[in-house]
Design brief:
Elements: H1 3-10, E1 24-28, H2 33-44, E2 48-53, H3 59-68, E3 73-77, H4 83-97, E4 102-105, H5 120-148, E5 151-156, H6 171-189, E6 194-201, H7 210-213, H8 216-225, H9 238-245, E7 256-259
Parallel strand pairs: 1-2, 1-4, 2-3, 4-5, 5-6, 6-7
Helix pairs in contact: 2-3, 2-9, 4-5, 5-6
Length: 266
């Protein structure tokens, strides 16, 4: 079969590759913000979704939103900085769906203050939430995916994973480590059928970003740094997360996809 004949046969099925029908997705931090938006995008593309959050806030509401899209939506409360709770989370997912096709790690926190005054307890908290919990979720979900021989892991990084900033000795370093963990896992697990990638958004209107985007001076500075002259919107994450979760990205591995309006390029 010639190359032309091959692509003529495959091209009509292009959009089918983005569908997630029959897939089961686990979205950590899916009860609010970016995680919530991506959970609904996965559901709209056909996936059943389990929402994970530390407490009850937003869990049932997001699960109901998934169900309103015609998919199976469940939720589980877990502190994913605790390995025992991560193991229980994975057990719940397997009891409910019998598999894990997609993992989205969207948990995160930020703390900014002068480095010489930065509280060590706060520094450790940022590292635990942004990095340790992500490692634990990848470790335990990875075991399941290795047995399955397939899986898609999507870690949520940030433009700060590429750039430092003043008064940020915790958040930016944690996101840089997320990028490197993504690369390391992609190298280790890619040959075993697991794609590990990341998404790095710029400032997007969420509860976490509100203190910056609601401040006119800070917002103007942010906009001055983005070539497209706008901040991120939640639906800007829809296409990237569905792409990385779907068959359309089967040969994409170890990539950190910037969703930043050109911030890092500038």
């Amino acid at each position: 079969m010639s190359d032309l004949d091959k692509v003529k046969k495959l091209a009509p099925k292009t959009l089918e590759r983005f569908r997630l029908d029959g897939r089961a997705a686990l979205v950590v931090g899916g009860n609010k913000g970016l995680g919530q938006a991506m959970a609904l995008a996965l559901a709209a593309a056909g996936a059943d979704v389990c929402i994970i959050g530390r407490g009850p806030a937003g869990l049932e509401e997001t699960s109901e939103a998934v169900r309103s899209l015609g998919r199976r939506g469940t939720h589980f409360a877990a502190d994913v900085t605790d390995e025992e709770q991560v193991a229980r989370m994975v057990g719940f997912m397997l009891d409910t769906y019998s598999k894990i096709d997609i993992l989205v790690n969207s948990q995160g926190t930020v703390e900014l203050q002068p480095t010489e005054e930065f509280d060590t307890v706060q520094w450790q908290r940022v590292m635990d939430v942004n990095l340790k919990s992500l490692f634990l979720c990848c470790k335990h979900v990875g075991r399941v995916m290795l047995k399955q021989g397939r899986g898609k892991i999507i870690n949520i990084s940030s433009v700060r994973g590429f750039q430092g900033r003043a008064q940020d000795p915790a958040y930016a370093p944690s996101k840089g480590a997320v990028n490197q963990l993504t690369h390391s896992l992609a190298i280790e697990w890619g040959v075993k059928g697991i794609n590990v990638n990341a998404i790095a958004p710029v400032f997007t209107r969420t509860e976490m970003a509100a203190p910056i985007l609601d401040d006119p001076v800070k917002r103007d500075w942010v906009l001055s740094r983005i070539p497209m002259k706008r901040t991120g919107e939640l639906d800007d994450l829809f296409g990237p997360v569905v792409f990385l979760a779907s068959r359309a990205s089967d040969f994409v591995n170890g990539h950190v996809l910037l969703v930043d309006g050109g911030w890092v390029a500038a």
